[in-house]
Amino acid sequence: MSDFTPEVITKKQPTFYFIGVTTQKSSIIKVFPRWMQVLGRTDIIIEGIDLKIHDTPESYRAVVNQIKQDPLSLGALVTTHKIDLYQAASDMFDYLDPYAQICGEMSCISKCDRHLEGHAKDPITAGLSMDAILGSKYFGRTGGKVLCFGAGGSGVATALHLISKTDPADRPSQFIFTNRSQWRLDHARQMVSSQNTDSTFEYICTDDPHHNDKHMQNLPPHSVIINATGMGKDTPGSPITDQGVFPQNGIAWEFNYRGELDFLHQAEAQKTSRNLTVEDGWLYFLHGWTQVVAQVLHIDLTPQLFKELAQAAEAVRQ
Questions:
Q1: pTM (2 decimals)?
Q2: 82 with 106: CB under 8 angstroms?
Q3: Which of 19, 116, 174, 184 is positioned for an S-S bond with 145, CB 3.0–4.6 A?
C-alpha cells in the first residue's frame, strides 16, 4: 500500500511534493531547501510521497486531488509513476501540455490561476542532458546507434528528443528499445509513430539480460547504451550481465545517480578496455528538477540561475 491518505489535508505552509518510490533517499531532500534559499522562498517545504510501482488508480487520484484542492499544495515532480499517474488521473487536469498528450505521461504537476496543469518535461530535460553529453552532430561524426534498456517515460522522451533534431547528423540511424513488458513497447511505438522520422526503430520484449548482452555486442563503435529501466535504483540488478561487452568508444549512460547502480559499475569496469564515456544521472537530475521547480513556482530559469542552483546542489550531493 502507499503511504498517502485519500483525505485532503490543508497545509500550513507552501508545499512542493515529490512523488516517487524511495523519495527520502533522494538528494533533493537536502538540495531543495538550499534551492529555496537561492530563490528567496524559504517558506516552501518539500514533502515526499512514496507509492508502490504501478500503484492503484485510487492512490494516484488521491495525490492529484490533494494538490488540486489544497491552496498551499503547490505542485509536484513525478518519477517512476509518470505513465501510471497520467492514465489514472489525466481527466482531473484542466490543461495537459503537448508533450504530456503525445507521451501519455506527466512528470510535473503545477497550478496557474487555480487551473491544474500537467506537463511532460522529460523530452526537454533528457534533451538538455543528452546534448551536453554528445555534443553537436555526434551520430553524423561517429555512425553510432542507440540501445535503450527500458521503454518508460525517460526512454521514450530521449527518443522523441533525438528524432526531433533538425540536423540529420544529430539523429541516430537506428534506435533500439528493449523492455520486459510488451505494453511499454507498444506505448513507445505509438509515440514514435506519431512523429515523422527517418530513424529506424526496433522494439524488443525480453526480461533476459543475456539477450540484452547480445543486442549490445552487435552494435557498431561509438554507440550509446542507456539504462532507463530503473534497475539499480527502484529495483535491484542491471539489464545486462557482467559478461556483456560495451561497444568500442561507446557512451554508457546510466539515468540513475543513486542506488546500487550496477549498470554504471559494469560500464566503469570496461571504461579503459573499451574506451567508454560513462555518465551517471546527475545532470539529468539537475535539469529534471530545475525545470519542474521553475514550472511550479513560475520562475524564469535562466542559464545563470541554473548554474547557481547546480552549484548549490553539488555541495550536498549524495
A1: 0.82
A2: yes
A3: 174
